[in-house]
Amino acid sequence: MMKKKRIFALALTSAMLLLTVPAVRGQEESHATVRGAITEDVTSGQIDVGRLLDRFLDRAKIAADAAGIISEADKHRREADRMLKAGRRAEGRAQLRQAGELIAAAAPDRDAKHDDPFLREYLREITAALVALDSPSIVSDSSMVGSGNIGEGISESYPVNPRVALFRDYWLGRGRARLNLGRERLAAYGPMMARIFREEGVPEWLLAVGFVESTYSPAALSPKQALGIWQFIPGTGVRFGLQRTAWTDERQDPVKSTRAAARYLRNLHALFGDWPLAIAAYNTGENRVARIIERTGVRDFWTMAARGLLAPETINYVPSVLAASQLLNASRSMQVGREKSDRLTMKTSRRMDVKIKAAETTNISIARSMN
């Protein structure tokens, strides 16, 4: 009994020492989290001293790791502030991106820091600063914004390479039924989506992301629980303001989810400075792209793809979006005939597997068929 009391006293003493250390940016809330965990166990009257100590040490380690990462990123942020004040905008932007990439790379999937609120908040601050710097160039860099044709200008911005050409042929061939369906749904959703993308400063050709994700289906649900037109997983949806309750899930709301997708794409472009990389990060997660940059120094999607640094799904995802953007609102001469369907069932996943049931069932798997 005395031994347990001593261990408990040691845990409480350690906690008090941690909570009295001067806080780094965001660490105040981390202390509150640790304090809450201890209070919960103490007030419950059912203290498992070993479990309590383990929880405390785990939380303390995560908080310490997060503080160290933020401290390192803050060096780049301070240098960015200095350069921006000196009028060296490009160099300041590069330093901010290094800070953001450092944070994004620090918390891969299944890492305890992946959902750390302080790393998330710091990354949000860095991204907001980059968006503020990039906003004018994002709009002016795209002749497509406000054009009324989501494919206009895409060929000039990103010359067609062989992989994009393959996907273009795919959409005009085996993927024709899905392309027609996408055009039909875009006729209904397109004006609203284009308006939102313009308001957020995102090129309209990126509406093709919604086509590749779900063929613009609000009901599309993947095995990983990604839902809606833009296939947000629950955590990312919450990050961008999409609420979930027992009665509704805003990931299925076409207007709100489109706003969230536009902001997510805008933030990814601000972080990586390149639309193909932003599209890749939308598919695989910004943490994976950031870790590749950190490990290899490569900041170009096509180089990453050629060297096999990304998953095959992502390597195919980007050219698929680029190809679809050219065809969704193409000229009348390029349109293919529409087919009536009495029954339509869709099953969309991140591997872009879609079932279209019309006169017959056609199984489409882009990632598999193009490898």
Task: Describe the protein in words.
There is one protein chain. The protein has 371 residues and is mainly α. It has two domains: 2-139, no CATH class; 153-369, Lysozyme (Orthogonal Bundle), CATH 1.10.530. The protein is 63% helix and 3% strand. It is built from 16 helices and two strands. Strands 1-2 form a two-stranded antiparallel ribbon. Residues 1-32, 139-148 and 330-371 have low confidence and may be disordered.
Provide a brief overview of the structure.
By secondary structure, this protein is mostly helical. It has helices spanning 2-20, 27-44, 49-85, 89-105, 117-140, 154-157, 162-172, 176-199, 208-214, 234-239, 254-272, 275-284, 286-296, 301-306, 312-327, 366-369, and strands at residues 353-357, 361-365. The protein folds into two domains: 2-139, no CATH class; 153-369, Lysozyme (Orthogonal Bundle), CATH 1.10.530.
